Amino acid sequence: MSSPILRVESLVKRYGGLLALGGVDLAVEAGEFRAIIGPNGAGKSTFFNTLTGLLRPDSGRVAFDGRDITGEPPHRVARRGVARTFQITSVFGDLSALENVQVALLAHARRSWSLWPRARALGAERAQELLALVGLAASAAKPAGTLAHGDQKRLELAIALAGEPRLLLLDEPTAGMAAQERLEAIRLVHRIARELGISCVFTEHDMAVVFAVATRITVMHQGRVLAEGTPAEVRARPEVQQVYLGETA
Amino acid sequence: MKARHAAPLLAAAAVLLALPSGLTDFWIFITVEVLAFALYAVSFNVLLGYGGMLSFGHAAFFGVGGYTAALFVKQSGLPPALAVACLPLAAMFVSAAAALVIGFFSVRRAGIYFAMLTFAFQMLLYTIALKATPLTGGDDGLTGLKPPGLLAQPLAYYYYTLALTGAGLYLLHRFVSSPFGHTLRALRANPLRVQYLGIDVRAHRLAAFVLSGAFAGLAGAIFALSNGNVFPGWLDWTASATPVVMAVLGGTASFLGPALGAAVYVVLEVLISGRTEYWPLAMGIIIVILVLLMPEGLTGLWRMGVVRRGARAAPLPTREAR
Across chain A, what does the average pLDDT equal? Predict the structure, then answer.
């Protein structure tokens, strides 16, 4: 039995008197496509932010690939091979789509400090390939800020992939999309992650999306893990239906 | 450098090389000032336009460069030929060191807090310049400065300035076009996202701050020896508005925009203050018109013209950091 790629033990995060994470445990095996579901305010985004060092946990432990990364700043976590996307789409608005990916490639190649070479052509070919992979080949020259919402989400994916991550955290990858677009978007991520052997953890509100791709599902509620299992198991749990599935059905 | 830029740049270089033959010593002196402030404004804009950091204490580095040059020619005792070569390096080194210390604390904050920190450190240096009389001459400043050796000739000093400014602008342009420069632009656009690429935001901001400070210091050194004097007022907080105005006047969205802004600013100041003592009034009116009517500055005006004429041009970049 290999050790999980991500292991979280009793992670606690407080905001003043509010307990945002009340001791979260999670183990994600390599190759999983894990969904985290839960009502708004369940602590999903806080969980991602605490995992990746944007927020410091009050207690608990995070291990990536067997190494303790608790409290490391985001840039260190990223260098270890953890990429993420954001609930509110987060690209480099006044750079072109191609430059967005190029910057990520340069950072991954540890070239962000080189002052002399001209960056224009560096990694352009690979960046173009990544754009093609997410279906944005034709938009390479457009400023990222002018792309349609769905295309910005794809661009975020290409940026994340540029770092050759082993674990990809997606915070509501289909937020703000139309229902049909959502399934397409998550299937794209799913296909690419399988091809490249990337493990994924994603948060999601749309149950159709979750059940379309998730290998396992973790249900969060009020900062705690309420249930975990295969999609069929989770669907069958009465307390899950009560807290979450029932509300959105 | 894009091919379409090559011709205008060569033309500008040719004009600048030939210029002194058609100018009086006074206008040669003014052109040196233009060049020094062009370098100053462009170095400032590497922070603002590329890094999204509005320094409100950039005069600190211009002033430190000026004082370093003054002390260098007064105290170093080097033979002139060596002094000519070492002077710019000394000024850049000392300003970079100042920028390293100030930046170390300032880049921990962004936006208005960053601006306030740079402002506060500049006032600290101003006080030192004012009170450390044995070193800085106190309120009187350091006067009677002469460039070393042959550079005492206005014409020689002009070409010295032209070479240093040209080299400085070239280096800065390479830096902003490099992977570091692209990282800086990404950082301005989205500091949160860039961390998740594995970029240490604080370290990159600090590096940009130090580079910018070093070239501002070089500009200060060039101007100090041309001017013949340095005063504590160079480090006063009002002096830090100068590069801001020049950069915004020329346009922060283009590399050479601030240089154009510097040229217009300096020449207008000479022309207007020669006729009336109300130069600041004129400047105020110009700034109001500028910000209301052409927020992208003079270079932005030109680019909007290109767009309106229907030529193929990239859309104007959106500027979050203004």
Answer: 92
Residue B181 Cα, gap to closest chain A Cα (Å) = 7
B19-34 mean pLDDT: 92
Check CB contact under 8 Å for A106 and B314.
no
Domain limits for position B182: 3-308
Task: Nearest by CB to A78, from B189, B198, B317: name it.
Answer: B198
* Across A25-29, A39-43, B67-71, B112-116, least confident range: A39-43
User: What is the CATH number for B230?
Assistant: 1.10.3470
Q: What residue of B is the nearest CA neighbor of A82?
A: B196
From A138's Cα to the closest Cα of chain B, the distance in A is 16
Q: Which residues, other chains included, contact B308 with Cβ-Cβ below 8 Å and sequence gap of 6+? A: none
Is residue A199 helix, strand or coil? strand
Residue B182 counted as domain residue: yes
Identify which of A83, A100, A106 has the shortest CB distance to residue B179: A106
SS3 assignment, position B250: helix
| B183 contacts in chain A (CB < 8 Å) | 103, 106-107, 112
Asked whether residue B319 is domain-assigned, the answer is no
Smallest Cβ–Cβ distance between A90 and the set B182, B193, B320 belongs to B193
Q: Work out the pLDDT band at B309, boundaries 50, 70, 90.
A: low
Does B87 fall in a domain? Answer: yes
pLDDT in tens, A208-226: 999 999 999 999 999 999 9
> Which pTM does this prediction carry?
0.91
Question: Looking at chain A, which runs of residues are DSSP E strands?
Answer: 6-15, 18-28, 33-37, 59-64, 67-68, 82-85, 167-171, 199-203, 216-221, 224-229
On chain B, the residues whose CB falls within 8 A of the CB of A120 are 177
| Closest residue to A145, CB basis, from B174, B197, B318 | B318
Substitution target in A94, A116, A157 with the highest count of B β-carbons within 10 Å is: A94
Question: Is B199–A112 a contact, with Cβ atoms under 8 angstroms apart?
Answer: yes
Rounded-to-integer distance, Cα A67 and Cα A51, Å: 13
Minimum Cα–Cα distance from B188: chain A residue: A92
Could you give the domains of chain A? Answer: 1-70+199-249 (3.40.50.300)
Q: Residue-wise over B270-300: b if at least 16 C-beta within 10 A, else e?
A: bebeeeeeebeebbeebeeebeeebebbbbb
CA dist B231 and B70 (Å) reads: 10
Residue B320 within any structural domain of the chain: no
Number of structural domains chain B divides into:
1
CA distance A248 to chain B (A): 31
CB A166 within 8 A of CB A5: yes
Which tens digits make up the pLDDT trace of B191-206?
999 999 999 999 999 9
Nearest CA to A193 among A103, A54, A85, A46? A85
